[in-house]
Every structure is written in structure tokens, then in C-alpha cells.
Design brief:
The structure is a single chain. Helix content is about 25%, strand content about 25%. The strands form 11 sheets. It has an 8-stranded mixed β-sheet, sandwiched between helices. Strands 18-17-16-19-27-21-28-25 form an 8-stranded mixed β-sheet, sandwiched between helices. Strands 30-31-39-35-42-33-32 form a 7-stranded antiparallel β-sheet, with helices on one face. α3 packs across α5. It is elongated.
């Protein structure tokens, strides 16, 4: 892309108060600045990009007056992102200085602006400038650019940065006018080299009284100095401190490859976020839908992308249907790249497609690549003349039904609701990037992910779920594309947005939802989500853990004890029971109930049952996780003093009792420290008879509850038997824990 440029001219004759009132702030950015104002910012901008708007905000908050020049004009100053250039800035500034050259009291500050932030008002800036006792002060950096061969010609510096940077400088108008008219320069010549040659001329430097801000007392260039600075908070104020020189820079410039770090700083300064008040810029430029009728809501195209088999996709669809937004204002675009979900998607479209304004479905058998499918989603948005485009990947579970409405109200070019993989730091955004464009952790990533800082954050990368404003899509210069070299689609999208100076935001103002893990999702089982207890624990619990499980851990409540030292706990949902039974019956290889059992070491079972071991269906590791995370805490509560982490169990199996197979089990001791017995179906409905009798206590548990677990000691004290099943089929899940 062609790099766009903006720079600023500040002219000062008087000192303003620290806080501009609302009227002053409203007049900050104008095309015509009153000549009688003694502090004037002149900025040249070719386009109103995100960086330009951020610059405007910092100017407004600090009460600085600005006059805009060059807006909408063609940039002819070269590709400064990748080479030299910028002479056009000198020529434009030269022309503007004609208006001020004869005023010896005017102080003019020049800055780039797409990559500049102000964090001080006029009074602080001038106070610091006057301490230099100079007519002109340039910012300084640690690199001699663009001609390293000139480094030896610079004056030696005892402490501080040695080399001139032309992105930030200020001085009196007559001297600046002489500098700007010192020689010829073409539009695409390098502006920094132009100023450098003047500074290195000892006679000119002395005559014009030019100095460099070696220790960042006014200006902070970030290139090569990120490790020199720290973000600090004092009450409701946030500032950047240069810890090397013990200074507080007032104007911050992200020269070179430091733009992303400035984006991070811009999340806090000026007056964007602080620890006491939280997010201040969250409430700026909002687009409220509160007073609008549903028929007047913006038209949205929602792109649903199922690129891989996704666990808990059933819940994804239910939550999507529950979005609190008029369905007749939503046009659906669905790309299903996973044959595994074909039936679910077809059923969804058949049952609910008519509720939406339109539905376009691209199925897996059409063999459309992901990047192409996502670009087609953008085209669908253009075709429908959408006002917003909402990208939703199948791994993003939208738990908050108001998500879409609130993102629209946030009114940012691209905004993503922050989602994480539960219990992990993995999220749908990156706080920073490495030099080659991959993940790097920002200074505040963990605070944001953990919810210690809530707000709206400018970040370099978002994925999985995000809202794109329609004006970004309808503008040919900023239209999203999912192609960039050989990058993955999401990285290509974000790279193109960054290159077009379109800011990406992530918000964690509220809890929006969470991400499921699609990695290693096995789809060859009968009920695949049963196996996701470790990969997707949060969703597994929501689907399979009993709604009252947490009450088991409440020490203020008594645990049900139907027989001495036999405890009864609600553990899992009826769906879990049905799916586990279904998994076993689908496998179908029940043991024959004899003493000969080749599955066991030695091949002999003393008290045989008709059963299937968990390892036979590939669920042994998952079941051990169940014992560790859900059974062990209950054991430690009721059998005080016994702890074994993690619990061990080599015998985990589902037993089937039938009158025509094995209707009962003879009295026996279990080879365990304790045993769990989980009821998988319903007495008097699915079967009759059955239950467990503890002989020593002459106590029976017959009216078992589906999804409830019995826990009892295994050896010595709890000699027990399985009672006759007289009708139907009884299923129980057994584990001999810590044999």
C-alpha cells in the first residue's frame, strides 16, 4: 500500500490552562485556525485513518488547537515505511511558515501524527521547552538515519541519545523558517537527511541555536528505546516515564517498527484507562441503539465459518439462535467446511432459515477454500449493502446474547469480544507481534485476559469472532481481504487491516463467551463430546455435570447417607448417562460373565460381571480425569484424613444386568480403598428390582437415582451384593479406586 502521512505544526504565544473546557475542545480540530490564537497546531493529513483519529483525540484531550492542511491531497513523499522520503512535508511546512516567519515570539512545534501521541497540555510543553534555552529543539534517537556514515560527525554526548530525529521538533518561527528554506528538496527526498545536514553544520547549528532533546525531556522516540520506558499510574493520571533518564516525555513518537507499542500505550494515554476509573475511552463515539425500534436496527451480515469438526457445536447453534437482535435484520452467510457437521447445518437451515432476512450456504462438498469463503462473505456484505459484518467461527461460543448489539454500539472499525479458552491464557487476540508478524505477549496481556483490567484495547491481531463496520468494507482502500502472501486467513485479514491503518480492537468490558478447543477433537466415537472432559472442561461440565454437583462441596449441607458410610452424591446429567450407555452398546463387546477374562492380567476374574472396560472404548484417561477432578474432592470430604492425588484405578467399567444374562452379583469385597457406583438409568422405569445390599449392616439401596453416585469403602467393612434385576436392563458405572 502507499503509506499515508500526517504531521503537525504547533504555534504558541500564550499559555493555556491545563484543562480545556468543552467549547475549546470542540474547536480543537479545524481547517482554519484563528490568527489571534497564540498556540496553534498545524497538521497535514492526506487521509482520516485510525491513527489520525487517535491523534485528534490526544490533541483534544490536552486542549491543543489544530489546523488541518492537505486532507484529501495526494501523497507524493515516497514510501517512508520501507525507504527514505518525506520531502513533501518540508515543502508544505515551508509554505505554511510564510505566515509566521516575521513573528519572533511564535513557537512552532512539528510532529508526525499517525504515530504520535500528546500526553501534556500547552503549558507543560512550553515550560519544558524554555528550559533548553534554545531557539530550536529536535527530538533525538539512538540510530543515525538515513545515512549511518554521518554518525561520526555528530557532537559527542555524555548521556542521552545522540542522533537527530525529524518526526518531532519545535522552535521559534523565524529560525524554523530559515531551516526550511536552507536548500532545495524534492517531494520524495528524505526530510530527516535534510534537517541532519543543517544540524551537522556547526556554524548553522550555533547561529540558529539548535539543540537535541537527548534525554527525552519533551520528545520520546520509541525506536530502540522501548526498554527505556515504563507506563506509570498516579491516581487517575497515566503517563510514560523514561526510567533511564528519569524524565516524563510529553510527546511520544513511534518511529520505525514501534507502531504496535504505541497502540498499546494509546490504550492508556492520554486519559484512556486508569486503575481508579477504568476505561474512559470505552464511552467515546458510542452508537446507541437504545432508542431505536427493531425495524430501524442496522442491517448485519453474519458469516458463520465451520472450518473444522467442532465439539459442542449443538450448543453453539443454540446460543447463536438466542442472540438478542432482530433476525429480519440479519443476513446469514454460512461456510461449512466440515462434513462432520453437514447434517446439523442442514437441520439448522431447514428449521430456522426462514427467520432470517436471507441465508446463503456453502457446503463442504463445494470444496471452497477457507480464504476464498471468507472473501465471499465480505462480498455478500457488499451485495446486501450491510452496515456491519459479524464474523463468527464455530469455536466461538457466544454466552452473552447481547453481544452483537453491544459491539455495534461500541462503534469501532473492527472490534472483537474477548474470549478465552477456559482455565487457559489462550484468547482470540494477540497483544503484540514479533518482528516477523507472529504472536508476542504485550505488557498487559495477562491483566486483560484475566479480567484485572477491563476496557477496550487496540491490538494487532483478532480472530474467531469480530465485528467489522460497514464503512470499512465499502471503502475500496480498506475493504478486508483474507489473502496476504501465504499467511493463514485470519493473519492475512489482520495484516491487511494494519497495513491500511485500520485499528483492531478487543473488548473485555463484559464477559461475552468463550472458545472451545478444536485441536485433537476425535470424531470416531459414538458420542464424541463425552471424551472432551480434558480438552473442553468448561463445556463438558455444562453439558454433563449435574446441576447440583457443587452442593456436594458445601460443608454447610449434609451429605445423604442411605447406609452406614455409604454416601450418595448427584454427579452427572441424564444425558451423560444416556450417552455413556449408548457408547457401550454401540461398542457391543460385553464380557461373557465367566471367571475367564483375557482383559485382565492373569486372565481370571473372581467376581465376574457382564461389563465393558473404559479402556476398551478409549475413555480410560478421560475417566481418570473424572475421578481426579470430581470424585476425589467428595472422597476427601466424607472420608477425612485419606488423601491420594491423583486417585488410581485400573478397573473402570460399565456393568449390564439383565434377567436373561446376569441378573445379580454374589456377595463380595471390592479390591479398592473405596468404590464408586454410578447409576446410569432409572429403576421402576427402565428396569425392575436391582440395587445394592450391604450385608454387615443389612442395608440396601434400591431406589437409585439416575446420574447419582454411591461411594463406599471397598475392603473389609462393606461386604455387599448386587440384587436381582427381574425385568428390563440395569446399567451402572463402577470404579475400584486406589486398589
Amino acid at each position: 500500500m502507499r503509506l499515508k502521512f500526517q504531521w503537525v505544526l504547533l504555534v504558541s504565544l500564550a499559555v493555556l490552562s491545563a484543562g480545556a473546557d468543552d467549547k475549546d475542545a470542540a474547536d480543537v480540530l479545524t481547517n482554519e485556525a484563528p490568527s489571534e490564537r497564540k498556540f496553534l497546531i498545524l497538521t497535514v493529513a492526506t487521509e482520516e485513518t485510525s491513527g489520525y483519529k487517535r491523534y485528534q483525540r490526544s490533541v483534544k484531550i490536552n486542549g491543543l488547537p489544530v489546523k488541518v492542511l492537505g486532507l484529501g491531497e495526494e501523497w507524493k513523499g515516497g514510501d517512508m515505511a520501507n525507504s527514505v522520503g518525506g520531502g513533501q512535508k518540508v515543502l508544505m511546512l515551508r509554505k505554511e511558515l510564510e505566515l509566521h516567519k516575521d513573528d519572533p515570539e511564535k513557537i512552532i512545534m512539528f510532529t508526525d501524527a499517525y504515530d504520535v501521541l500528546f500526553n501534556a497540555n500547552e503549558e507543560k510543553i512550553l515550560e519544558q521547552f524554555h528550559q533548553f534555552n534554545a531557539r530550536v529543539v529536535f527530538s533525538a534517537e539512538g540510530f543515525c538515519w538515513p545515512d549511518p556514515n554521518l554518525a561520526s560527525k555528530y557532537p559527542e554526548v555524555e548521556r542521552g541519545k545522540r542522533f537527530l530525529n525529524s518526526g518531532l521538533f519545535m522552535g521559534y518561527a523565524p529560525e524554523l523558517y530559515k531551516i526550511l528554506n536552507d536548500g532545495e528538496i524534492a517531494n520524495d527526498d528524505d526530510d530527516q537527511l535534510y534537517y541532519t545536514k543543517i544540524f551537522l553544520d556547526e556554524k548553522k547549528r550555533g547561529k540558529l541555536n539548535i539543540k537535541l532533546d537527548h534525554r527525552s525531556e519533551i520528545f520520546q522516540n520509541l525506536n530502540g528505546a522501548i526498554s527505556d520506558v515504563e507506563l506509570r499510574f498516579i491516581g487517575t493520571e497515566s503517563h510514560l516515564e523514561n526510567t533511564v533518564y528519569n524524565t516524563v516525555p510529553l510527546v511520544i513518537h513511534a518511529n520505525g517498527p514501534t507502531k504496535l507499542f504505541l497502540n498499546t500505550l494509546g490504550n492508556y494515554i492520554p486519559k484512556s484507562w486508569n486503575a481508579e476509573e477504568g476505561c474512559l475511552n470505552c464511552w467515546e463515539d458510542m452508537n446507541s441503539l437504545e432508542k431505536k425500534k427493531p425495524k430501524d436496527f442496522p442491517k448485519v451480515v453474519i458469516g458463520i465459518f465451520i472450518e473444522n469438526p467442532t465439539p459442542f457445536f449443538e450448543e453453539f447453534l443454540h446460543k447463536f439462535l438466542a442472540l438478542s437482535y432482530p433476525k429480519d435484520k440479519i443476513n446469514l452467510y454460512i461456510h461449512n467446511g466440515a462434513s462432520y457437521h453437514a447434517k446439523q447445518i442442514a437441520g439448522f437451515v431447514e428449521s430456522h432459515g426462514k427467520e432470517y432476512a436471507s441465508v446463503k450456504l456453502i457446503n463442504h462438498d463445494e470444496n471452497v477454500k477457507e480464504w476464498h469463503a471468507r472473501n465471499l462473505g465480505i462480498e455478500e456484505c457488499l451485495k446486501k449493502k450491510c452496515e456491519y459484518y459479524f464474523n463468527v467461527d464455530s469455536l466461538a461460543q457466544i454466552d452473552n446474547p447481547h453481544t452483537l448489539k453491544l459491539l455495534i454500539e461500541q462503534n469501532r472499525p473492527v472490534v472483537a469480544p474477548m474470549m478465552i479458552r477456559p482455565y487457559q491464557a489462550w484468547s482470540n487476540f494477540w497483544g503484540s507481534l514479533t518482528t516477523d508478524g507472529f504472536y508476542a505477549r504485550s505488557i498487559d496481556y495477562m491483566e486483560i485476559v484475566q479480567g484485572q483490567r477491563r476496557g477496550l484495547w487496540n491490538v494487532p491481531f483478532v480472530t474467531s469472532i469480530y465485528l467489522v463496520r460497514g464503512d470499512i468494507i465499502h471503502n475500496p482502500k480498506t475493504k478486508p481481504s483474507y489473502i496476504y502472501n501465504l499467511l493463514d486467513a485470519d493473519m492475512a485479514f489482520c495484516t491487511n487491516m494494519r497495513n491500511n491503518d485500520v485499528y483492531l480492537y478487543v473488548t473485555n468490558r463484559l464477559d461475552w463467551g468463550h472458545l472451545v478447543t478444536v485441536d485433537n477433537f476425535e470424531t470416531h466415537h459414538f458420542n464424541n463430546e463425552l471424551y472432551e472432559i480434558q480438552n473442553n472442561r468448561w463445556d463438558w461440565e455444562k453439558r454433563y455435570l449435574h446441576v447440583n454437583y457443587s452442593q456436594n462441596l458445601d460443608t454447610n449441607l449434609n451429605v445423604t447417607m442411605p447406609c452406614p458410610d455409604v454416601f450418595w452424591f448427584p454427579m452427572v446429567t441424564e444425558r451423560f448417562c444416556d450417552e455413556l450407555v449408548g457408547e457401550m452398546e454401540n461398542f457391543g463387546q460385553w464380557s461373557d460373565g465367566t471367571n475367564t477374562d483375557p482383559r485382565l492380567e492373569g486372565g481370571y476374574e473372581n467376581v465376574p460381571t457382564r461389563d465393558i472396560h473404559m479402556r476398551q472404548v478409549g475413555m480410560d484417561h478421560q475417566w481418570l480425569a473424572f475421578l481426579r477432578d470430581y470424585v476425589r474432592p467428595l472422597q476427601e470430604r466424607v472420608f477425612l484424613g485419606y488423601q491420594h492425588y491423583p486417585p488410581r484405578s485400573t478397573m473402570n467399567f460399565v456393568v449390564r444386568y439383565r434377567p436373561d444374562e446376569q441378573p445379580f452379583l454374589k456377595p463380595h469385597h471390592d479390591s479398592s480403598t473405596y468404590t464408586i457406583n454410578l447409576a446410569l438409568n432409572r429403576p421402576k422405569i427402565d428396569y425392575e428390582g436391582g440395587g445394592c445390599r450391604f450385608l454387615r449392616y443389612n442395608c440396601s439401596v434400591q431406589d437409585t437415582r439416575k446420574g447419582w453416585m454411591l461411594m463406599h469403602p471397598g475392603r473389609l467393612t462393606h461386604y455387599h451384593e448386587g440384587l436381582y434385576v427381574t425385568k428390563g436392563t440395569r446399567y451402572i458405572m463402577i470404579s475400584f479406586v486406589d486398589p
